[in-house]
Amino acid sequence: MIVRVLLAVGLLLLSAVGVATFPRSVLVFLLFQASVLVIYFAGLPTRIRWALMGAALLVVMPILGSYNSYYLEVGTQVGIFVALALGLNIVVGLAGLLDLGYVAFYAVGAYCWAIFGSPQANELFGHGFPLAPAWFFAFLFVGLVVAAMAGVLLGLPVLRLRGDYLAIVTLGFGEVIRVLANNLDKPWNITNGPIGITPIGRPPVPLGLGYGRYFYLLVLFIVLVVILVNRRLENSHIGRAWEAIREDEVAAQAMGVPLVRMKLMAFACGASFAGVMGVVFAAKQVFINPESFTFLESIGVLSMVILGGMGSIPGAVLGATVVTVLNLQVLKGFSLWLNELKNAGVTVLGYNLAHLPTQLEPAKYERMIFGIILVLMMIFRPQGILPAKRRQRELAHAPPVAEVPEEAK
Amino acid sequence: MDVDLLIGILPQVILDGLILGFMYSLIALGYTMVYGVLEFINFAHSEIFVAGAFVGVEILLGLKGAGVLDRVPWPIVLLLVLLAGMAASALLAVTVERVAYRPLRNAPRLIPLISAIGVSFFLQDFIRFIESIWRNAFNLVYPTIDVLNYRFELTQSLDVSVKSLVVIASALLMLWALHALVNRTKVGAAIRAVAEDQTAASLMGINVNRMISLTFLIGGAMGGAAGVMFGIQYGLINPYTGFIPGLKAFTAAVLGGIGNIRGAMAGGLVLGLLEAFAASYLSLLTGGAFGAEYKDIFAFSVLILILIFRPRGLLGEVVRERA
């Protein structure tokens, strides 16, 4: 055991030193991320595991951020998507309601703070905006509540629908929110249309911390809270009711599960996480426009949940991390590398890379990544990389016929 | 409000709506036939439609590059492009079914839907990848054929271009052919039997898998034809063009009653007309407050309302909900 701990610590420190030495190397940073994973999966005693993870994320990461601030940005993005994936995991994974317009709630949260945290609200109320930076914290809750209300609003009419129809209606809802954001610059200028809103106020930052590190720590804290809430929910009677609904609606109803209330609650809970992160996102970016909230984002979050395993909290965290890192680092890194080779005129297998079409841009192929993840996971491992524990136990005792998990029916 | 203006543009609005509607009908057939047989939404159908449009533009650009586009009579060019688009899309649809849907035939309903979404996203970027390598561009413009752009001026406020007439005529022809195929031939009866009850159909000696492939083939061919027509009618295409028309065609299929072939045709026309009305009149009726940019919302609202209040659609039968 001590050997394992030492190995894990060694790997962590080694990769951290590596990142500090080669702050531009994507591969070394990936190694650092892998070392965090190793700590999680090394089978260490719980306390040591969490202490090491905490040290890696709370201490080592911010230090590395001073070598390459982009890594903090990556960390922040990962955190945001982890929270989104956990929120969607409640709706899709636990309650089994396929929501294809999840990003709408993220947009609702983001616009909440964007409108009042910038001079935009003056268009509506005359003067007195932007609000003071400290209001940001109040708006974390406003975003939560408004997004949850949007969730209930969407949930009420669509609850009667089942499965695939529900999916399409939520997709439509997501598009409606985006089109509204795109066009509500008249007759009243609420969202400033496709131009978007800027500058959006940022929360006050303690001296010497810097925005990059501040947002990283803030997101980390929120993610921690979200994970705790998720774990409590999963093991509460609410979580069990959700899973009952997912497995068999009729049976759940017969056992006295209030379908409507539980489904609404799933929508509201899932939406509220997205709302909070929307507020953070707006403040972090300083600028938002409807382009940040497309169907692509919804499917991105869905593919995170599917990759990790529907209904599994560690799965959602892992899925969000892997997909975000793939998008932000691996694709971009590959793109840069290819460009370098191209500029150097390197020849591969008798083909001069300098002739590669300029429009190729591998960094833009995130749809392909999402698509491949979704198809392959559905065909080969529908339960995900880290299947939910309860589901695993179920499958272990199930008769061989029921090998295909009955989730999301 | 200028009532004369409102009435004056009405014929043109109806004509535009019909063209749009026929296009939606053709795409909607792909959704509705697959849903009828497998009870699942073939989310990738919008990309199958786009693939047809891309094959069409490649052939036209190829002919133009060879300098023969103006020398070959235009009906032959059109026929060639349409057939090629249909063949490519049909082939793609069958392949997608084999690779991504067939292994999931007995899985819970949402599993193939998620797989279909994945296929849809994959194909978008795949088309982009191919075109980026091949042409170093993925926003392509259909080459114009002069004859097709000629406009007949019927009245002062109504004119119709040759290409619109071609689109309407070929759509009608295809809808009729499909109708005849499904209702008057043995193969059509087999498809209907599979849609009704797969087990019973296979007991009657029908090769269910082959019929499902055939369904995808026919739906894909219709989608491909619609893709080529879309390109000819509106000119500009890119790999992501299909999403919105696809969603609207699905709306049309639901509107008409999903699984119902006549319903899809009717639903497409109704939706096309509604959308044309919304696009032209919304701005006029609200004094400019809400303009044509809300026409998408309008279509989605129709979808949501139909699903909530009349899920079986206009022409659909009451389907017993599966417990």
Task: Give a concise summary.
The complex is a heterodimer of chains A (409) and B (323). Chain A contains 16 helices and two strands.
Q: What share of residues of chain A is helical? A: 55-70%
Task: Show unreliable segments of chain B.
Answer: none
Broad shape of chain B: globular
Q: How would a textbook summarize the main sheet of chain B?
A: 2 strands, antiparallel
Find the count of extended strands of chain B (DSSP E, 2+ residues). 4
Strand content of chain A: under 5%
Overall pLDDT level of chain B: 87
Extended strand count of chain A: 2
The ordered H/E elements of chain B are HHHHHEHEEHHHHEHHH
Euclidean distance between termini CA atoms of chain B: 52 Å
Radius of gyration of chain A: 22 Å
Q: Counting H and I runs of at least 4 residues, what is the number of helices of chain B?
A: 13
Note the topology.
The complex is a heterodimer of chains A (about 400) and B (about 325).
Chain A: H1 2-21, H2 26-41, H3 46-65, H4 69-94, H5 103-116, H6 122-125, H7 135-158, H8 163-183, H9 211-235, H10 237-247, H11 249-254, H12 259-285, H13 295-308, H14 313-344, E1 347-348, E2 351-352, H15 366-380, H16 389-397
Helix pairs in contact in A: 1-2, 1-3, 3-4, 3-9, 4-9, 4-12, 4-13, 4-14, 5-7, 5-8, 5-12, 7-12, 9-10, 9-12, 10-12, 13-14, 13-15
Chain B: H1 3-8, H2 10-38, H3 45-66, H4 74-101, H5 110-135, E1 140-141, H6 146-149, E2 151-155, E3 158-161, H7 162-184, H8 186-196, H9 198-203, H10 208-234, E4 236-237, H11 243-256, H12 261-285, H13 295-309
Antiparallel strand pairs in B: 1-4, 2-3
